[in-house]
Amino acid sequence: MAGEFGAVLRRLREKAGLTQDELERRSGVSVSTIRGLETGKRSNPRMTTVQQLADALALRSGDREELLRAAVPGRRGGGTGEAEADAPEAGAAQAEAAQAGAAQAGTAQAGATAVASPAVPPPPPAPAVRAAPAEAAEQLAKAVAARWQREEEQRRIQDPYPLPVRWKAASESLTDHWANIRRLPPGVPSGPLDLSGRLEGVAETYRSIPSGRLVVLGRSGSGKTVLTLRFVLDHLRSRTPAEPVPVIFSIGAWDPTAVTLRDWLTEQLTRDHPGTAAPGPGKVSLASALVDSGRVLPVLDGFDEMADGLRRPALEALNATTLPLVLTSRPAEYAAAVAETDVLTSAAPIELTDLTLDDLDHYLPRTTRKADRSDPAAGAWQPVLKKLREPSPDGSPAPLATVLSTPLMVALARTVYSDTPEHDPAELLDTERFPGVRELEEHLLDNFLPTVYRRSRPGARGWDPERVQRWLGHLARHLTELRTPDLAWWRLGHGLRGSTRTLVTALVTALVIGLVDGALSTAFGGSLAGGVLDGTVVGLLAGLLFGLVHWFTYTVTGKDVQPSAVRLRIRGRPRSTKWRAGSRLVIGTLGGAFFGSAYGFMVGLLRALSRHAGPASALETGLIDAILFGLIFGGAAGLSFCLLGLLETPLDIVSAVSPGSVLRADRRTVLIQLVFWAPVFGTAVGLGAGVVVDLLQGHLGQLVMDPMSSLMLGTISGLGGALGYTLTLTAWGQWCLLARVWLPLTGRLPWAVAAFLDDAYQRGVLRQAGAVYQFRHARLQSRLARRRR
Predict the structure, then answer these.
(1) CA distance linking residue 131 with residue 494, whole number of Å
(2) How far apart are CA 11 and CA 7, in angstroms?
(3) Distance between CA atoms of 586 and 642, rounded to whole angstroms?
(4) Rounded Cα gap, residues 300 and 310, in angstroms
């Protein structure tokens, strides 16, 4: 608990005779963090931070145990019996922290034995890096539980109660040998497991499978996504430290022909939990360490959403591993993949069953307002449900009964009719208007958006329903073309052609840098005509060069401009994620040298031609300026990149991650980079120009660089370089260019894109899956994409 930890930390610090400033110098933890921990304003301290403080305080084993125990919520201290009882519950990380000497992360029981024997001296403290994956797993479990609890509340799954999702064992043709599923040795007789169950028992069903591999099959809208959410929350609630942390991954975004499963899981984990980008043991990230050590249980949602040609290699890749996992899919797509290769090895498949009329009788009337207080059962749905129970002339079920057999359609019907009193669900029985199942489903899908956007939300702006349809249709088609369910704000521009993205980037960058250069040149030189000419030339050259850099970095390689996985701290002493001065120096120097050489050659060539110099003289001037500016910009960029790395510090794993928070964090990081980059890079260019000119004086002819020219070059380079880097090579810069300017300008998105996406989430059109949005229903996305096309 934060209060208990703060009191213990303050007492131990005062016992050591240290002030907060002195503790900062010894531990490397900023004084603001220490003050926040001691006052209780900061909660959930990272275990690495706690261990840094413990080392700085030079605590003995008893005091160290007390401090670590106070940092772990729910961990009890005291006598031997309590420590022995708590070690298995606290997990590998907490057992290591309590004993500071268990040989490996999973030896909690051995640690408990050491506590129970006071005659045996405690072993020396274990390195913090050894405990990092176990500690990270516990923090990841907290973050996952908090995230999906909020998402369950947002989706109103418990209002008034969850729909009864049930399942049965799937077809034997989709099931592996039961001996493999039950992990039995050769020769031991085996039989099938009883896998039937209900939503509230999904965690128990999974634990009854010895192989730890479960396949959930169900037709569209049958409740697979709700089941995975419930599984994660229930599994975490009853999880022991020895069990991995269930994490939901949208497998539809995986290309098994381009990236391995473990690498893809690591990338997705880093995206949705940026704190796992911090370094772990063995010079790899915590995300990689968590996946490789089996501390993550992949819950792979949406196998059917993969492209047709990728399901077979995906199933083969899954069979090449022994990872415990949960996989969801529609039955037809999974069966087709099985027919092409084989079943998922050691996996027990279950299939979700339809809702019954009794389920509808219990649920739908409770979602409407009471029309008659004297008769609580009376309501708009009562006559409809009664009509559905009447036998049809041919004995077949009514189309509406078939439609309402899936939780998706029931949820849509509730939104369109139960939550909108002026709509009467009796119209769904009109067989002339709705002759079949398809017409009924399309009616519910088409009326969902007008219904939710007809309501006013407090503090939210009003959106035109027709424009909303067009904007969401563009987003749905964008995801369909990208073949992914993940709506990432940093990829909104990928709906454009690569050439269009590069051209827009180059033109806007040229305009911005040209305006900056023209204004500063006019201020320094006092000539408006000279400033306009210089701004035009520099803007065009900078736009061309930055556009080429963007083209070769992202368009040609097909890579995304990813949000930053770190934050920057100017005050205090940041703990660097991966300090690699050599690589940063090489990348910065080469990039700066390339840009400076190209820029210098073009400027020198144009300058010589403007003086009516001959081709040979112009070429010579261009080459001299290329060497000069290449050295200046290369050295300045390498130095700036190295110094920028000193400010990087990893994000917290337990910090809340949502599309909005990732966007704000990336914007904050980029703005701090701007504030740092512009003066540092500008100063390095200005001072470097004089140094390089002095060193090369006479070797390249008569070189002239007066102080005013150096100041002007440094100022323009600092601002222009920072703006060019931001617009072309950062996720937030591309977001501003494409999602905030170009797509709204062409009518494909609103001007307030972030507010629109958040509003769609609040209305239940979108859902959050970590750092990205997804359409709440795949059927809704498909319908919108078709209508947009």
Answers:
(1) 40
(2) 6
(3) 10
(4) 15
